[in-house]
Amino acid sequence: MTRASIRASLTIIIAAVVLGSVIAGLLPSYWVFLATSVLITGVALQSLGLVAGRTGMIALCQMSFAGVGAWTVGYLNIAEAPGGLATWILLGGLAAVPLGVAIGLPALRLRGINLAIITLSFAAAFDVILATMTFPGQTAFIQVPRPTLFDSDEGYFVFALIFYVAIAVALEFLARSRLGASWLAVRHSERAAAAHGVSVAKAKLSAFAISAFIAGISGGLLAGYLGTLVAENFSMMQSLSLYAVAVMTGAHFAEGAIIGGILVVMFPEILRRFDLPQDIGNVLFALGATQALSTGETMSETYRRLLRKLAPQRKAAGSTLFEGDLPAPVEHAKGAALTVEKLTVRYGAVLALDGVDLTIPAGSVAGLIGPNGAGKSTFIDAVSGFLARYEGSIKLGKTPLEGQAAHVRARAGVRRTWQTNRIAPELTVGGYLRLAAGNLSEAEVRAMLDWLDCPDPETPVVAVDAGTRRLLDVAGVVAARPTVILLDEPAAGQSHEETLRLGRRIAEIPTRFGSSVLLVEHDMDLVRAACSQVTVLDFGRVIASGPPAVVLDQGPVKRAYLGIEESVAA
Known about the structure:
Elements lengths: L1 H25 L2 H26 L7 H17 L5 H21 L8 H19 L21 H23 L2 H11 L1 H6 L4 H27 L9 H14 L4 H20 L5 H17 L3 H12 L25 E12 L2 E12 L3 E5 L6 H9 L6 E6 L2 E2 L5 H7 L1 E3 L12 H9 L4 H10 L14 H14 L4 E5 L7 H18 L2 E5 L3 H7 L2 E6 L2 E6 L1 H4 L3 H8 L3 H4 L1
Parallel strand pairs: 3-8, 3-9, 6-7, 7-8
Antiparallel strand pairs: 1-2, 1-4, 4-5, 9-10
Helix pairs in contact: 1-6, 2-6, 2-9, 2-10, 2-11, 3-4, 3-9, 4-9, 7-9, 7-16, 10-11, 10-12, 16-18, 19-20
């Protein structure tokens, strides 16, 4: 993953050096001036790409954060603060961070149109504040000085390019870190992210904070670019246009932010030369964003998809599973790994679970079976922390789990998979494994994927079929080596042979990784192959429990689960 970050960063740097040299060395000053505006707009779009493109939250107030950064730079200039413009710009970005966190707080409970209204309201309020005050130095025409080395238009273009590249490279490394993976996971499924131990609140707030910091930097760059500023530079309508362009171009990619900057800066120039109304641009941006949302693919994603088709396919190196490369087993306490007593769950008048008792011995694979609607998924939701209200007790070892949120239980040692696939398709296979399991070496990642016949770590999840994604889901929770693993129908989408092989792998988990397993499954061949004990639910009650060979042969189990009448079974 580090090599991938370095490759992407080198690509960005080389492209910046080549294009920057061409623009600064060959184009007339006017076009260099416009190119600088493209870069500054691109920085603002990068900030929006982080919070909207990567984390999936609607933010319509980025220019307000930019205004805070610009105002801070203007104030530091009037105050003759030491450090110069570069330092002031960074301080302006930091000044925007508290506002970013404050705006991010509603995102902990709101999403979609409700969050859009909150952020738009903040932008409108900021407009009112700016209308009643002036930027520092505005009335006295005191301009923000550019650094001596970058005083010319060509020089300031290079200055802005350095900031753009530095931010793009930093975001590339962040995107491939666990924090970046957690943003994508939250965007795709907050529940699945929490099941991997991700704090959804921290992921959202960190995205808003970093996004505000980058937006504040764009405002500081604009202050040095124009010298003096007015409130109209940071209007609410500009935030709306910026959001539409970010959605259309895919501003969470470095090239998407530049494409967006070109559209925002150059399109009005084209309209001006043809003597057309500037509002046409906003309409076209809105149509482009609608198109991207309806197709589910931005301009950057289209470009990358076509590039992958043109690029020569790397042959996957033949890999050999070395036992020593698998993550080492974790020693857990002896006795019961999980103890559930009198677990009762009600949905209004419906009794989903009625006093369920279940114990998973340490170092074992237990099965939980039953017909559809028996309460199996409700049981997993309660144990993993996705049900706030239940009666009874749940203990991990000797530690009660009552009152603990889902991500806290996951960190404590309760991990789960899902019946439906919830892996963020933007991740790579290796990136998902690291999100689920934390820091793994390259050898451990490859060995873990080989162990379950999953693809190469650099393979995009979007290119993986549904059945293999289920195996990848299992690989993630197993590699984390928690105390208890809850597998919710992992064999869905597998052939009979693949199911039997999966059963053998699941049976190996306690000895290879040290985790105990609760397997929820309808496939009886898988249950027989993997489980040493089985508990049967019917209408939320335990009707049988014991070794599979004994339990599956009981009349009530055949009648309730296998659809065989007890008289026939007798």
